[in-house]
Write a structure and sequence with these properties.
Keywords: Membrane, Transmembrane, Transmembrane helix. By secondary structure, the chain is mainly alpha-helical. The chain is 69% helix and 8% strand. It has a two-stranded antiparallel sheet with strand order 1-2. It is elongated and about 50 Å long.
Length: 152
C-alpha cells in the first residue's frame, strides 16, 4: 500500500474532509432547491447546524493534526490520517445518514438544512487541515472562519 511522509497526511485529511463536505453540502443544497424546506427553517437551521458541527470539527482537526505531527517525518501508511476511533465514527455517521435517507426516515426539509450546515462545517475542517499543513508548527490550530487560534 502507499506510504506518505506524515506531514502529507495532513493534505490527505484535508482532501478527504473537503470532498466529503462539498458532497454533503451539495445534497443539502439540492434538497433546498427542491423546495423541501421553508425559507425560515433554512435561515435558522443551516447556521445552527453549522455552528454545532464547526465547534466539534475544529477540535477534531486539532486532535488529528497533533497526532499526525507526532509521527515525525517518517513515512506512514496513507490511511493513518485517522485513528481507529475516527474511522468508526465516520462509518457510523455515513452509514446512518445513508440508511436514514434510503428508508425515508428523515424528511426532505431536515436533509435541506442539516446536510447543508454539516457539509459546510466538514469542508471548513478540510481547510483547517490545509492550514495545519502550511502554518502553526507550535501546535495551535487556526480557525478558517474566525482566524483565531486554538491550542491543539
Amino acid at each position: 500500500m502507499f506510504k506518505a511522509r506524515s506531514k502529507y497526511l495532513l493534505l490527505i485529511a484535508a482532501a478527504v474532509w473537503l470532498i466529503a463536505g462539498t458532497q454533503v453540502a451539495r445534497m443539502g443544497l439540492e434538497a433546498c432547491m427542491g423546495g423541501a424546506a421553508n425559507s425560515w427553517l433554512l435561515v435558522i437551521g443551516i447556521p445552527a447546524t453549522f455552528v454545532a458541527f464547526h465547534a466539534m470539527f475544529s477540535k477534531l482537526v486539532a486532535k488529528h493534526a497533533a497526532r499526525i505531527r507526532g509521527y515525525g517525518e517518517e513515512k506512514m501508511h496513507v490511511l493513518k490520517f485517522f485513528d481507529v476511533k475516527g474511522y468508526l465514527i465516520m462509518a457510523v455517521m455515513m452509514g446512518g445518514g445513508i440508511a436514514l435517507r434510503s428508508f425515508g426516515v428523515v424528511p426532505g426539509w431536515f436533509v435541506a438544512f442539516f446536510y447543508t450546515g454539516l457539509g459546510v462545517a466538514l469542508a471548513l475542517a478540510g481547510i483547517g487541515f490545509i492550514r495545519q499543513y502550511i502554518h502553526h508548527e507550535d501546535g495551535t490550530v487556526g480557525c478558517p472562519v474566525a482566524g483565531c487560534l486554538h491550542r491543539g
